[in-house]
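The records we work with from here on pair a chain with its fold. These numbers are not coordinates but entries in a learned vocabulary of local backbone shapes. To see the layout at work, look at the sequence and tokens printed below:
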Amino acid sequence: MNRVKIDLEFIFRASPGILYSFFTEPAKIVRWFCDEVDISGNVFTFMWSGSEEVARLVGNEDEEKLRFKWEASDNDEEYLEIRFSQAPVTNETILEITDFCDEDEKEDQKNLWTSQMEKLRHETGG
């Protein structure tokens, strides 16, 4: 199956610093992303309903960008990247996500991220 890259963009009223903390602090990650998370150095172990996925943080620019590599991925070119920037006129935060999935799962993956971002928006107040 062909793998494809997807790029998504979401607008938040919360600052980049607040959003960044919801991707890096265990107590905040579990409020919107997974059931449990264990962070040991640069290794994040995410748990959902008894299954787990391990990701290594391979890029970190405070309040600007995070890049993860999933340990289960067979493709070294794939990653999950989250970028945070501020719109100059509106002062809103632009959260950009780059992810990879099977070509036939593209819409499902986009829908999943949209649903997760709604949870995050609720948790961050906007």
Observations:
- The two ends are 37 Å apart (CA to CA).
- The first helix runs from residue 16 to 24.
